[in-house]
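The instructor's notes for this session suggest beginning with a concrete chain rather than abstract definitions. Hand out the sequence below and ask the class to guess, before any prediction is shown, which regions might be ordered.
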Amino acid sequence: MPVAAEGFPTVARDYFELFQLPVEFDLDLDDLAGRFRVLQRKFHPDRFASQGIGERRAAAQLSADINSGYRVLCDPVARAGFMLERVGCDLKALEREPVDGGFLMRQIELREALRAPGSSAAEPRAQAVAEAKALMEAALAGFRAAIGEDDLTAAGGFYVQLLYLKKLNTEVAVTSEPV
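After discussion, reveal the predicted structure:
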């Protein structure tokens, strides 16, 4: 990682570089957590409290970048978006692209099944949760394969699906909790 004269990395926005990780979709989250703790101990703003204003600001910014990078790299959907952004993809433009109607329809059906009268039975809820998780796993596998082959068009399509599926999985998990 390039280091500035004060001992701070020159660029903290590339989270893979910041955490000294290979640019790969699959990460060892325990290793990432260990790297996070090491960086936070080294660059926590409290360690620079007696330094000049410039060093304190740099430490505060780097600490914020470390925290942000950890959150992004821990979340597979955010990590997918970050990987696309770092190669120049416009995520907002991707999100405006049309999404397969069958894909959207299946999500609507799952949500309706959970909210339908008499849908409080455990088995239909468990089936909806399992299907939502399976859809997420399939989209993650698709993204993983596409990004591994440098197929940014396909990776972008899977990223958009992941955004929808993340929301669906959150909703399914909430509605499947016992009341």
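Then share the key points. The domain at 94-175 is CATH 1.20.1280 (Monooxygenase). The radius of gyration is 20 Å.
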